[in-house]
Amino acid sequence: MSLLSLTDINSRYGTFQALFGVELRVDEGEIVAVIGANGAGKSTMLKTVVGIMRSPTGEVRFAGRPVGHLPVHQRVSLGMSLVPEGRRVFPSLTVRENLLVGGWVKRPGPWTVTKILQLFPLLERRIDHPAGNLSGGEQQALAIGRGLMANPRLLMLDEVSLGLAPIVVRHLYAAIPAIVEAGTTILIVEQDIGQALSVADRVYCFLEGKVALSGRPRELTREQIAAAYFGV
Ligand code: ATP
What we know:
It is globular, with a radius of gyration of 17 Å. With 232 residues, it is α/β, with parallel strands linked by helices. Helices cover 32% and strands 24% of the residues. Strand 2 and strand 3 form a beta hairpin. The protein has one domain: Rossmann fold (3-Layer(aba) Sandwich), CATH 3.40.50. It has a six-stranded mixed β-sheet with strand order 8-9-10-5-11-12, with helices on both faces. It has a four-stranded antiparallel β-sheet with strand order 4-1-6-7, covered by helices on one side. The structure holds adenosine-5'-triphosphate (ATP). Adenosine-5'-triphosphate binds at residues 13, 16, 18, 36, 38-44, 85, 191.
């Protein structure tokens, strides 16, 4: 059974339609990546999953039930966690405090401050520092850790790599297998195609609000991906 499924999603900003008939599923234990150029609708899809936006048509199902009518906090308490684009940590709170805030509404599960520090050891020596003093990569690690502290069934990551050096991005992506092994399913949104394909079990490519291509990375050719990404 799918943990998350979207059928016929047509989300809009006022009169501007951003998604067109999007169909997508994430099975328990998978890593699914959504790639696509700027403005392709990837973040809008995540906002629709978590309930910041609603589709006038179709259905969002999570853990076996329709959730499209539920407010964000109820979807979160069912086990969704979104790490939004832009590493929005609380700058004046310490690393520890940021993590504890993430666990404020907590489901039972494996993630604790200690486990997050094992996942991202670079945070350990920063644990009592204000998050605003951290580097971009450390802030992104903290944002992911904060998302995990709620012990979500589905962790959604929006543009982990944005504005970070490749070596930092590789370090962050290296943590993903351990997250899945701990029982958390992952939906990643990325503009960095190489990184997304290297880690994902399945990938969806969005183009102008539509799913232009989907499949297992090794079954897709570079040409197919380029065509779906750039629309050529
Ligand atoms: P990015 O990588 O830039 O985040 P994306 O694939 O996540 O791209 P979205 O942010 O989902 O794309 O945007 C999809 C479309 O919706 C774009 O045309 C964008 O301009 C438009 N859009 C996004 N946010 C708003 C908003 N708040 N109001 C109006 N239009 C918006």
